[in-house]
Amino acid sequence: MPRARRVLLRPSLAVLSLSLLLGVAHAETPLFSADGYRIGLYRSPTPNQAEGATIIDTAALQTLLTQRPRPVLIDVYRRQWLQGRFIEDQPHENLPGSHWLANTGDGDLTPDWQDYFTRNLQKFTAGDPRQPLVFYCRSDCWLSWNAVKRAAAMGYKTLYWYRDGLDAWQAANLPVTPALPEPFP
Prior knowledge:
Shape: globular
Number of strands: 9
CATH architecture of the largest domain: 3-Layer(aba) Sandwich
Largest sheet: 5 strands, parallel
CATH class of the largest domain: Alpha Beta
Distance between the termini: 66 Å
Structural class: alpha/beta
Strand order of the largest sheet: 1-8-7-2-6
Order of helices and strands: HEHEEEEEHEHEHE
CATH topology of the largest domain: Oxidized Rhodanese, domain 1
């Protein structure tokens, strides 16, 4: 083999080997925790079911919002947390009347974040596990799926998953409001 080909072939083989190695490493990264929470690739297609919850679309949510008791809207979109505070790297909006429990849809919650989630749900429902709760994020977002699963495990009974979330609400040209996360801790 001529020297020029060998010189070109070696880097090509090295790049190919590295991409195969990275592909295998990525394929071996688990997507779910032992408890069944999604722990990676949060922005990817979501399932058509959420155990313990009813999946709703925009029309169903609008109907729910006219009923009594009115459901509590919980936005679980992520917000960077650094040195004891939320970092507003870009403005966030949510559905009017929502409570933003940032980062509580992560698959693995530390005890402090779990307490933040628990304490706020307790406050928003006045301790009533039958109080309707609607969890949402954006479309193709596992964070709200995780939050619904977590709320069901905590004993909440009337759960809704607004699967397409803020994106569907905005696509219907419905109003949104500027949002700030609920204070942590």
